[in-house]
Amino acid sequence: MKAAQLDLERTLLEAGALLEGHFALSSGRHSDRFIQKFRILEDPSLLDSPARAIAEHFRPLRPSVVVSAAVGGILLGYEVARHLGTTAIFTEKVNGVPTLRRGFTLTASDRALVVEDVITTGLSVRETLDVVLSLGARVIGVGAMVIREAATLPVPVYALLEMPLRSYPSHDCPRCAAGEPLTDPGSRRVG
Ligand SMILES: [Zn+2]
Q1: Ligand 1 mean position to 8 CA, how many Å?
Q2: Is residue 170 part of a domain?
């Protein structure tokens, strides 16, 4: 196991970012584990180390810009860009469609590093990739703090921590079967 992986897992535990309970994921499936990533993203002193590790991994590929998706990705992407000395831009959804707004631009000469905080299904990353590629820029890779499921992406993925997702369809969830109400991710901590 990589040193960065051990460090990040310990940091997540110490920050109370690893929650145990009965969670409904954005996919609609239920899980007994949840990563409250904002326990890391909210603290610049905790975010510095993972951002630096992602930046150093991709520095040899000479990224010219960091692109992430609102909201959590903005914070990590900005910190990665600070280490790389590039700018950091982000996509946000307009009527459900990921878009670059605020005068953010990409050109065919850009070598974009896409940064995501936690990759769960890969959908958000794929949407960001589509935006970048549609503007003719190249994507040199995807960097993430945590990856939950092996997402099939057309570019190299580097994640600091692999934390496989244990989830169930809501009609076949042991905690639903036990009558346990859903947990608000903001309310319960372990570790
Ligand atoms: Zn359930």
Answers
A1: 28
A2: no
Low-confidence ranges of the chain (pLDDT < 50): 188-191
User: In which domain, by residue range, is 155 found?
Assistant: 48-163
Instruction: Tell me the whole-structure pTM to 2 decimals.
Output: 0.88
- The count of structural domains within the chain is 1
117 inside domain: yes
Residues 6+ apart with CB under 8 A from 156: 140, 141, 142
Residue recorded with tokens 């010219």: 64
Ion ligand 1: residues, CB < 5 A:
30, 173, 175-176
Measured over the CA atoms of residue 51, residue 61, residue 162 and residue 170, the dihedral's sign is: positive
Measured in Å, residue 85 CA sits from the centre of ligand 1 at 44
Cβ 78 vs Cβ 65: under 8 Å:
no
